[in-house]
Amino acid sequence: MTEADRPLGTPRVADNLDLVGKLYQRSVYPAVREVADGRRLKWPLVVDLDPTTLCDLACPECISSGVLHSGQFSGDRILELAHEMADSGVRAVILIGGGEPLMHRSIGKVIEVLHGAGIRLGLVTNGTLIGRYLDELADMVSWVRVSMDAATRETYDIFRPSRRKTSVFPQIVGDMRRLAERKAGRLGYSFLLMQRRDAEGRVTESNYHEVQLAGELAKDIGCDYFELKAMLDADHFTVNQAAEDTELVEKQWKALGTIEDESFRLLRSSNWMAVRSGSDPVQHKDYAACPVAELRTTVTPNGVYICPYHRGNPKGKLGDLTGTTFAEMWENADTTAVDPRSDCRFHCARHPTNVEIGALRERTGPVELTDDFDPFI
User: Fold this and answer.
1) Which UniProt keywords apply (predicted)?
2) Within a 10 A sphere around the Cβ of 370, how many other Cβ atoms?
3) Beta strand pairing status for 225-229 and 265-268?
4) Please, are residues 222 and 177 in contact by the beta-carbon 8 Å criterion?
5) What is the crossing angle of helices 169-182 and 211-221, to 10°?
6) What is the rounded (10 degree) CA torsion for 144, 126, 230, 349?
7) I want to staple 269 with a disulfide (CB 3.0 to 4.6 A). Which of 32, 229, 245, 373 is the partner?
8) Secondary element (H or E) of residue 209
9) Exposed (0-12), middle (13-18) or buried (19+): which is 243, by Cβ within 10 Å?
């Protein structure tokens, strides 16, 4: 059955990257139905948590440059927040940033508190501190995705220079190997396509040529997947590429197909697929509020935001947690503050989910549900 043939309410094959299919898990669908019917949830199901805005790398193309090095939760407050989430209906927390989440000195205890409460954990990291928290990451975290964006030390140091003034690429690869040997969850190698251009628009630096080599390194390390992402501008819009650059990537991707198997998957982000097909960088939306904003939220030291795309955007700020509890903040949050028709014109990974939830509003009959397989909706 193709996607076009799939009737509304029919779950897809269980897939951790199938954001729409995740809506039809037995324990998730009741909350989705509440949102589809226009009611607020007592708690979001998923929280993107930025423990800190500090980072030990100095990446020139950092999409979070506007919020970097602007503070962090105190040790006491982040532990209180972890306990507040543990006592709530939150089912999954993604440690992310903002900055580098593992730089917060209390992060090990935060992981222990959330894991002990049965909350599933994910981590997006630059990988420099994997070795410091190897036990926690191997035993308590459902998945770790490392932002690598290169296959060699030389290219890595161009796009992801360390503030230490020495390359951290060999250390990260070594620590990923150690984690791969011990992990109970999944380990991913993330590759963001990047180019730099001069004043005349000529490409001066690129990592496009290392896609295949990076995928092969990911498998050799012991990663569970290799994920390819498109380059974005400062406002999160995709940047369409010259045909020869797209062809270079796709040729390498095809070659990587020979090493994909049940233990190692190749994943392409929705925004790269849009670039690959030459789609308009503007993604039109016809709904005035984001249903997913009721199901998941983004918590940072400088405020709680409607989603990571709007991190630091005053219009997308739902509240803050400096003088209020997580429960109080959420009760008073206005998750309709952002209008996707005008405020989210970039390609959003949750757009298909929002369309699906909107269609559910018109559905009155039963739907077919699937057993739970992934709370990271």
Assistant:
1) Iron, Iron-sulfur, Metal-binding, S-adenosyl-L-methionine
2) 18
3) parallel
4) yes
5) 40
6) 50
7) 229
8) none
9) exposed
Whole-angstrom CA distances from 168 to 58, 99, 102, 202, 219 are 12, 17, 15, 29, 20
Q: Kindly state the tokens that stand for 288.
A: 């005035």
Among residues 188, 198, 196, 268, the alpha carbon closest in space to that of 239 is found at 196
User: pLDDT digits over 293-350, tens only?
Assistant: 999 999 999 999 999 999 999 999 999 998 899 999 999 999 999 999 999 999 999 9
- For residue 179, give both structure tokens: 């984690």
**pTM for the model:** 0.93
Weakest-pLDDT range from 7-11, 154-158, 310-314, 352-356: 7-11
Tokens at 277, concatenated: 């097909």
Please write the tens of the pLDDT for every residue from 49-85. 999 999 999 999 888 888 888 899 999 999 999 999 9
Taking residue 178's Cβ as centre, other Cβ atoms within 10 Å add up to 16
Token pair for residue 342?
């005008």
| Structure tokens belonging to residue 243 | 């045909």
Beta bridge partners of 145: 124, 188
HSE, CB side, 13 Å, CA atoms: give it for residue 239.
Answer: 16
- The rounded distance, in Å, linking the Cα atoms of 348 and 234 is 14
The residue-averaged pLDDT of 176-183 equals 98
Residue with tokens 């929280």: 47
Quick one: tokens of 273? 């697929």
pLDDT tens, 217-265?
Answer: 999 999 999 999 998 888 888 887 889 999 999 999 999 999 999 999 9
Task: Enumerate the domain spans of the chain.
Answer: 43-280+293-335
Q: How far apart are CA 52 and CA 266, in angstroms?
A: 30
Can you tell me the distance from the alpha carbon of 141 to that of 183, in angstroms, rounded to the nearest whole number?
A: 9
Q: CA angle, corner 34, sides to 32 and 36, nearest 5?
A: 70
Cα gap 293→336, rounded to integer Å: 8
Residue 175: both structure tokens together: 């620590």
CA distance 285 to 114: 35
Strand partners, 162: 57
Class in CATH terms, 43-280+293-335: alpha beta
What is the DSSP code string of 215-242?
Answer: HHHHHHHT-SEEEEE--B-TTS-B----
